[in-house]
Amino acid sequence: MLIRRAADIPSSEITDHKLYVRRREFLKAWGLAAAGVAAGGLDLDAQAAKRPAPLEGVVKGPFGTTEALTPYEAVTTYNNFYEFGTDKESPARTAGSLRTRPWTVQVDGECNNPATYDIDDLVKPHALEERVYRMRCVEGWSMVIPWVGIPLGDLIKRFDPTPRAKYVEFTTLNDSRQMPGLRSLVLDWPYREGLRLDEAMHPLTILAVGLYGVVMPNQNGAPLRLVVPWKYGFKGIKSIVRIRFVERQPVGSWQKQNASEYGFYSNVNPAVDHPRWSQASERRIGEFFKRKTLMFNGYADQVAGLYAGMDLRKNF
Amino acid sequence: MAGARAVRFVVKPLVFAVSLGPLAHLAHGAAFGSLGPNPIEAITHGTGDWALRFLLLTLALTPLRVLTGWNGFARFRRMLGLFAFFYAALHVLTYVWLDKFFAWPEIARDIVKRPFITAGVVGFAILVPLAATSTAGMIRRLGGRAWKRLHRLAYLAAVAGVVHFWWLVKADVSRPRAYAIAFAVVAAARLYAAWRPTSGTTAPAGSRASTSASR
Prior knowledge:
- The complex is a heterodimer.
- Chain A is built from nine helices and 13 strands.
- By secondary structure, chain A is α+β, with helices and mostly antiparallel strands.
- In chain A, the strands form two sheets. In chain A, strands 1, 4, 5, 8, 9, 10, 12 and 13 form an eight-stranded mixed beta sheet that branches.
- The longest helix of chain B is centred in the first third of the chain and has 30 residues, at 39-68.
- The two termini of chain B are 23 Å apart.
- Classes of the chains: A alpha+beta, B mainly alpha.
- Chains A and B meet through helix 1 of A and loops of B.
């Protein structure tokens, strides 16, 4: 399959500095914690100690943005993860009950190497890359997050999809003992999402295992989550337990809940409003004024070709 | 009457101060950065929540008065109703300023195109004349019956507020449903209070806003 790749970061800008020694970003995050101390008596050491273990051997990946990172504190306390409650503060509070090891991912459907893989066997053969991506939520806010992960395309090649595979369907863990939010039937559990195979193979698409150089916090979708930066955040399915190759377009959980509001593609598009609110602008977390939302969340150079000739108003 | 004096000089100022609590909490949070990663959203939701809470609380006062027989409840109706309007006004101001930055054409389009915003604007539009006619002078000018009829619109404002919230949420309607249930209970209690056989309770003596206005 030929994938058009454009406007990449020149290789000269790609450094292989390990993430855990990137002082500036850490200092920035610590600055936020210090502001918290001034305000509400937060304990700086406690904040730092709460971070998961650092990931080793992370190399700087392509497509990085130079925009200011959203502080670690915000990235890990403002989450939409309905399996842990429907308000944004809940996941950080309640996701401690999620057990991320041992963890297996069932790979099946139209592929030649179906199996139930241990997560470490899945991830280990690949170099962990840091990808600094914009994340635009369908609700109208956005963040810049330094994910750590592996290109999904590399993984898919190992599974060797058959010619009948046109789409990939992902499924989240469905265990109400670990995920208290599953007891309220706000969505049709388990959470499901899907991509077209070429979207899944696109070099921008990653499976993330961490952020800010540390192991993925549970509330952000540990141990394995999808990141598709040109789509609204809800496409980035969390805590994945199953990857299935299928011939027909899968139906995502939000699409099933309200097909007129959440389409299969859900590409970030300032010209196509959510029926109940405008998508023309967004509030970057930490900023006062709103900014204009960019077509494909600013990744049009890389991904617009995937949708050539399609009516994006219809295929929203 | 010692009870009336206690209400006027102790309980009322106390309720007034407590009613400013949510505003103090939001102002403190905004000043010291403790409203979470999206403070403007927290202010929007906080002021909207409290507008609805004060409105429902205000509507609960008359059934409470009739059902408990304590006429003192009527003395808090105007104050709490005005707090509902106050928090609703802050809620609207937050939207117009911090969300839309006074982009009036965009706001107009929102009101026309987005049903949940239409419902919210209807609710607020109803509260404006109610707040404007809340003074003793206006009650006198309008006459008790007309004033009473006008202020029954508060129920409609509450319905609009609940609908506004319900149409806003993406999937989890549990909180707007809780408000809807609270409204249903208050409205049912009001109907029961109005129609029960012993409803000959006299209006509370000396309560200015309610002598003419109470049921």
